[in-house]
Amino acid sequence: MNVRELHDQLTELYPKSLSCPWDNDGIMLSPDLTKEVKRVLVALDATGATLEYAVQNGFDTVVTHHPMIFKGLKSVTECSLVGRRVLTTALAGVSVISFHTRFDAADGGVNDALCSALGYTASEKFGDDEAPELGRIIEIGEMTALEFACLVKEKLGCDAVRVNGDLTQTVKRVGLCGGDGKGFVYPALLAGCDAFVTGDAGYNIAGDTSEEGLVTIEAGHYHTEAPACRVLADLIREKFGVETEIFDSCTYTVV
């Protein structure tokens, strides 16, 4: 299997039609689309550390969730951050492929992986005008907001979670959207959710909706999307017979 074939096979599972209109993903960079894929490094982010690790450890392809190139490039030099990343991979013959909002929305993608990491299966989908089926809803039985927030912290391996709302409130129906989910807070409220789990909910939005009875639990952008890296790595290894490894690209620490 070569780089182009790997991208095309993954695109069949995560079609571009699921991407938000503003998104940019797919093949970010490839010095040779016909190069055989033997070792794939999977990461949430194409950070400099991720790409250096790939180059130094003999990976020919990097597959990420967040796009390495998001906005149009005007130049590629060592003077810019993205330019250095492009040069690092291109000069080493390493290809970079990213699957962003389509992987959020797809069945078995980021948000289903988040549900699974918490120990649940989504019962419904919800979203906004741009992404009508990106968010997920789970039914958790019955527990307090504090109990559920502690479960989220434990299951996702967070140092801390931030909660807006009444910690004693009973929650049964929970909306989820990994990463930057502030655009899905009000849709979760309208969908009848008692609580909403995301990485970043937005200060004012979370504060306002807490007065409407929605508890928001912010577990961090990285931690709410990282479970999907295992999904990608397992899929590439098992379906395509390619060696994979996961790189922890988290750049923040709670102190």
Describe the structure.
This protein is an alpha/beta fold. The protein has helices at residues 3-13, 48-56, 81-92, 101-105, 110-118, 145-156, 185-190, 203-210, 221-225, 227-240, and strands at 26-29, 39-43, 61-64, 95-98, 124-126, 135-144, 162-164, 170-180, 195-200, 215-218, 243-247. The strands form two sheets. Strands 5-6-8-9-10-7 form a six-stranded mixed beta sheet. A five-stranded mixed beta sheet has the order 1-4-3-2-11, sandwiched between helices. Strand 5 (124-126) and strand 6 form a beta hairpin. Helix 2 runs parallel beside helix 3 (81-92). The longest helix has 14 residues, at 227-240. The chain starts with a helix and ends in an 8-residue tail after the last strand. The mean pLDDT is 96.
